[in-house]
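Appendix B.2, paired examples.
Example (i):
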Amino acid sequence: AATLEEAKSRVEASAQNVYPKDSGAFTGEISSPMLKAAGAKWVILGHSERRQFFNETDESVREKVKATLAAGLRPIACIGETLEEREAGKTLEVVFRQLDAFSDLLAENPGFAVIAYEPVWAIGTGKVATPAQAQEVHAAIRGRLTEKVSKEVSDKTRVLYGGSVKGDNAKELLGCADIDGALVGGASLVAAGFGQIIAAAQES
């Protein structure tokens, strides 16, 4: 049977986390070299659940993004606000703070890293940002990258939307000008619905 590489598959493996040190006395942690040896090309970093349950901070996410880039793995760095923060009118304040923690690291290889905007209140809740709400934040992220890093980084960086993306809302979300793809969670476990999301991505 042909390997994935021989078949030139567009499917690539990603990890959901990484430890920022390559080696050392860190029993139970998974390093970048270990992920590469296992065939991973991508790493999700700073997911809201990591921030909430495992006390990850903006600084620790930066450290992981830096280590991942140094190892040649492609980070998918997550940012997003809680419901309380959105209701307090602090969405962009929070998103910009999280983005600014690592955005300068993207300048060396524009387009290599990916950013995922995931409003915490929409992850696994069934709630979803409207296309207008998502587009507003995605456009603001691009503006912030232009302001703080460069227009090239802003233009080349893919910004994904995550948060209750499903087959029945993917087309409208992915049709937004500044939404470049989706970071799909639970919906990826249902083949038919995930297939709809893939189809919507191919059409957008």
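Example (ii):
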Amino acid sequence: QPAKIAVPHRGASGYAAEHTLASYRLAIEQGADYVEQDLAVTKDGVLICLHDESLERTTNVEEVFPDRAVVDPATGQKQWLAADFTVAEIKRLDAGSWFDPRFAEERVPTWDEAVAALGTSARLNPELKTPDLYRSRGIDQAALFIESVERLGLPARGDSALIVQSFDDRPLREIANSLPRMPRTFLIEARDGPRWLTEEGLREIALFATGIGPAKRLLDGRPEVVRLAHATGLTVTPYTFTSRSPVDARFGSVTNEMRYFLFDLDVDAVFTDNPDQFPRASQ
């Protein structure tokens, strides 16, 4: 049976400020197989590692650039979109203190910096975030990513050295055409499960992706979905296993929860904030 795989979610984000080099390095220390990088795009077209499309949750942008906010039409709240700032401006921000003062010196890393920092210590699992936002601004996020892969020589590391993922099928279709040998994971939110997690839906996914990354609740108690995905030629990597929110009482620990999905349901890998608690064996 192939080895099960740990994908630290935003790095070792249970213990360090997400999407900082400190979080990525800790993930390696804790036994990561892959490390996830969410990719946003700056005003000057640089890929950076940031989960949200805006900067206020994980940096001190409100303090450094108080007059640069825009209003989110959906919520009426102020936000500081990464796409409105150059990479030089973003590098001025403290990206760690929000999590713990120990990380006050951490900065938002660029994708290039993350690739360099990880080296060959762990494989890469970038996610293309909110491509709709960039499309609305005339920015082809997938094209920027494809260019970076070629510029950084990433295909030369071997086909499984990098798995790209997205909740949006359009960039995955673009990458499937340009880099057909690169593994591609289609992420599936809980609300979209009924559309995709059927025989027909999985067959469609297999046209543009090599794996699925469903919200874990979509698989809980449903081993037949995992079997159907595998029969369709797709890997299965549910998200997110974390000690930062209450663990289901059935399991008692995040390790036991991951063990259930990995060995009882037979998923291939899991996204986790706690790579140090990843079970390598079924017992």
